[in-house]
Structure formats: structure tokens, C-alpha cells
Design a protein that fits this description.
Elements lengths: L14 H18 L5 H30 L12 H40 L1 H35 L8 E4 L17 E4 L4 E7 L11 E6 L6 E9 L25 E8 L15 E5 L3
Antiparallel strand pairs: 1-2, 3-6, 4-5, 4-7, 5-6
């Protein structure tokens, strides 16, 4: 007949205490003769040892949990090399990723700088246009100053209106002159003409372009030829300092003289011997 034995073990939270009590009761049962089968005892003792090891592992796990960390799992010895290689490969991948992220951030900062520069381009264009307008104004001002300087430089030199000989010179080197002061007279040498004062009664058939002959009192027997160049629009007395006015009082009719310009033909002998102010006798062929 089988016997049923009930083990009364006090409750405790520590698994070591519980295992010790169970083992003590088993020893007492064997000593008292209640457990006469040794095989049953040999089976219970290894079971208790396993329970003891499991309790120790549970205790260590509880300690790690209380400390806020988990124990590292133990890898098999055969997989240690592969795991280390995987760790190195993962570390290399991590470093490559960090480098790629750094390059991407650098490109991002470069793009942001280019964007900021592009946004300031309109203002730079406006500033450049303003600078261009100012430069053009300075150029125009410089050109005006250059033109004024050229004019002032020309004022330092006096040019004759035509080729000729200087006469009636009233100035010397170093003389200070005022504006409008006569300095000299220039007698043209290329073009020589005679002013003939014909009577108004002789102007009936006289026309421009008619052939004329001039005799100079200084060179008797020598005649110069020329053409009528122009006829004055008024008599000589009209431009006199005190022109005659016969509107009132006794009136005496006086024949008036009309100035006629006779241009002498060039390339005539002794033409260069003529001087301004000489007396001449002029004759015009009116037919």
C-alpha cells in the first residue's frame, strides 16, 4: 500500500531558505524511516540542486533589474569570431553613415549660403546700377572739365584769322593786356583787294563780276587786273561819324560816293609790292 507524505514548508521569499528547509525535512524523513526508498532520495536531491541554481540565476536577474541594467547574454564560443566581425562591420557602417551625414550637412550649409547670396543679388544689382550712374556722371564731369581746360589753353594762344603781315603792333612780350585791347593789325597776303569809291552817277551799269583795271600811283605805267567782287549797300557818308542831314535849312546837293570792292587776280607780277592804304585809280568795263 502506497503512502502519501505531505511536506509542510514555511513560506519565505528567499529561494535559498526554502531549498534548505526542504532538504532538512528530507534528511529528517530518511532518518526517521519514512522514506525507505533510496532512489527516491537520489532523484529529489539533484532536483533540489537545479532549483538552487535556478534560484541563484533569478536572484542575479533581480539584482540587475533593481540596478536598472540587464546582463549581457553569453554568446557561444563558436559564434564569438563572427559576432566580433559583425560588430566591426556595424561600427564601420556607423562611421560611414556619420561621415555621410557630415558631408550632407556641409552641402546643406553650402546650399544655404548660395541661397542667401542669390537672395542678395537684386540689391547688389541695384547698387551696381547706382555705381554705374555715378561713374557715368563723373565721366561727364571729367569731360566737361577737359573741354574747359582745352578752351582755357586756347585762350593762351592768339591765332591770326588769315595769313599775312603784322602791322601796327602795340604789344610786347611780358605786357599785361586787358580784354578788348587792340594788339596788332594783320595785312592779308593771299587775297588783295581795292576799295574804289565811285560816284553815284557812275553806278548805273556797274555790276558784280565785271572786269576792272587798277593803276597804282606808286608804280606808274603798271596796271593790275581784277573783278568787281561786291558793291556796298550804302554810301560812304552813311557810316560817317557825323552824317550829313539836309532835311532842314539850306540844302546843297552833293554827289555821294558808293564803295565798290575790286578783287585783284592772283599770280600777277609785283603783286606782293602793294601795301595797304596806297592811292589807286580804278576803271570798270561796264559794257
Amino acid at each position: 500500500m502506497a503512502r502519501l507524505y505531505v511536506l509542510a514548508v514555511a513560506k519565505t521569499k528567499n529561494p535559498y531558505h526554502r531549498f534548505g528547509r526542504i532538504l532538512g525535512l528530507l534528511v529528517k524523513l530518511v532518518a526517521a524511516g519514512f522514506l525507505r526508498n533510496p532512489r527516491l532520495v537520489l532523484l529529489i536531491i539533484p532536483l533540489c540542486a537545479r532549483l538552487n541554481r535556478a534560484a541563484r540565476r533569478c536572484e542575479r536577474l533581480m539584482a540587475h533589474l533593481a540596478a536598472g541594467r540587464l546582463p549581457k547574454p553569453r554568446a557561444p564560443a563558436c559564434a564569438s569570431g563572427a559576432a566580433q566581425a559583425g560588430v566591426k562591420q556595424a561600427e564601420a557602417a556607423r562611421q560611414s553613415t556619420v561621415q555621410t551625414v557630415g558631408q550632407a550637412q556641409a552641402r546643406r550649409e553650402q546650399a544655404a549660403g548660395q541661397l542667401s547670396q542669390a537672395q542678395t543679388a537684386p540689391r547688389q544689382i541695384a547698387v551696381s546700377r547706382t555705381a554705374k550712374e555715378q561713374a557715368l556722371a563723373k565721366i561727364a564731369q571729367a569731360r566737361a572739365a577737359l573741354a574747359s581746360a582745352k578752351i582755357q589753353l586756347r585762350y593762351t594762344r592768339i591765332y591770326a584769322p588769315c595769313d599775312g603781315a603784322i602791322s601796327n603792333k602795340t604789344v610786347e612780350a611780358g605786357t599785361l593786356v586787358q580784354a578788348g585791347t587792340p594788339l596788332m593789325a594783320v595785312i592779308p597776303s593771299e587775297t588783295i583787294w581795292v576799295t574804289a569809291n565811285f560816284k553815284e552817277t557812275q553806278m548805273t551799269h556797274l555790276r558784280k563780276g565785271q572786269h576792272a583795271e587798277v593803276s597804282v600811283d606808286a608804280y606808274p605805267g603798271h596796271t593790275f587786273t581784277g573783278l568787281v567782287d561786291s558793291i556796298s549797300a550804302a554810301t560812304g557818308s552813311t557810316f560817317a561819324l557825323l552824317p550829313a542831314d539836309n532835311a532842314t535849312g539850306n540844302y546843297t546837293k552833293v554827289v555821294q560816293r558808293v564803295p565798290v570792292k575790286i578783287l585783284l587776280n592772283p599770280d600777277q607780277p609785283d603783286l606782293d609790292r602793294l601795301q595797304a592804304g596806297m592811292s589807286v585809280t580804278a576803271a570798270v568795263a561796264v559794257k
